[in-house]
Amino acid sequence: MSEKRVVRKLKKLAARISAKIESVRDEMDDLEIEFELIQQHINKLEIMAKNQPVANDEITVTVEEEEADLDLENSSAVPAPKKF
User: How do the domains of the chain map onto residue ranges?
Assistant: First the structure.
């Protein structure tokens, strides 16, 4: 290959690598910001957990009524209330 062609190909490769490096830098900056936010959130949750007393004796159970099951295969099916 001629020297000019080699230099041209190396410049093209260097430009692609430079663009990729810039892209990775941007992604790293975004990840660092997200990491800091997650750490702050974890710290807040840990502080809240320390401030709230833990009651092992009390258990709260919430029972919700189930909605009528719909027949998804037959959309013309009309749900009827149960008599008994």
Answer: 25-53
Is the pTM higher than 0.90? The answer reads no
∠ CA 63-69-70, nearest 5°, is 150
Round to whole Å and give the CA distance between 66 and 56: 29
Q: pLDDT tens digits, the chain, 84 residues: what are they?
A: 799 999 999 999 999 999 999 999 999 999 999 999 999 999 999 999 888 766 566 667 777 766 555 555 555 555 666 766
Distant-in-sequence, close-in-space partners of 70: CB < 8 Å, separation ≥ 6:
77, 79
